[in-house]
Specification:
three-stranded parallel β-sheet, alpha/beta, 5 helices, globular, 16% strand
């Protein structure tokens, strides 16, 4: 695996992108999604790849479980984190979905502001969350490169 060069120190992007290709809007078939995940594992950005996300109905026994929490409901997030503490179940913040209201607003996606915030955070903040679920691993990789937060090898 190649080392990923980043404008952010401390491995902030390591294992950041949870591969949710089985879920909308991608909705890949299992065979296709597993093949794509294996291709991501062999890519230059493999260090960014987190776990393969699978619906609970298709999980093998003993799999790690995450509880999905809607990110806009901060009071709910705090309560869920309290309930999950010590259970071995990790929280996953939901930032998107099938409705526009589930996505961050334009103001919340202001590129210079977000890029500046990402550059200021470090590994100490990254350890507080498991990853960023995405049905297209390549889209966030391309976005990180475009924003100058990740350097694609020549």
């Amino acid at each position: 695996m190649l080392a990923v060069r980043s404008a952010v120190a401390g491995g902030v992007f390591d294992r950041l992108l949870d591969d949710a290709a089985l879920f909308p809007p991608a909705r890949m078939e299992m065979e296709q999604a597993v093949a794509a995940h294996l291709a991501h594992e062999a890519s230059w950005y493999a260090a960014l790849l987190g776990p393969f996300v699978c619906p609970v109905t298709r999980l093998p026994e003993g799999a790690v479980v995450y509880a999905e929490v809607p990110w806009r409901e901060r009071d709910v997030v705090a309560r869920v984190l309290d309930v999950l503490a010590g259970t071995g179940i990790r929280a996953k913040l939901r930032t998107g979905g099938l409705k526009a209201a589930m996505f961050p607003s334009d103001a919340e996606r202001d590129e210079p502001a977000v890029t500046g915030q990402v550059k200021r955070i470090g590994a100490s903040v990254r350890c507080l969350f498991a990853g960023f679920g995405t049905c297209s691993v390549l889209e966030p990789v391309e976005e990180l490169v475009r924003l100058g937060l990740l350097e694609e090898p020549l």
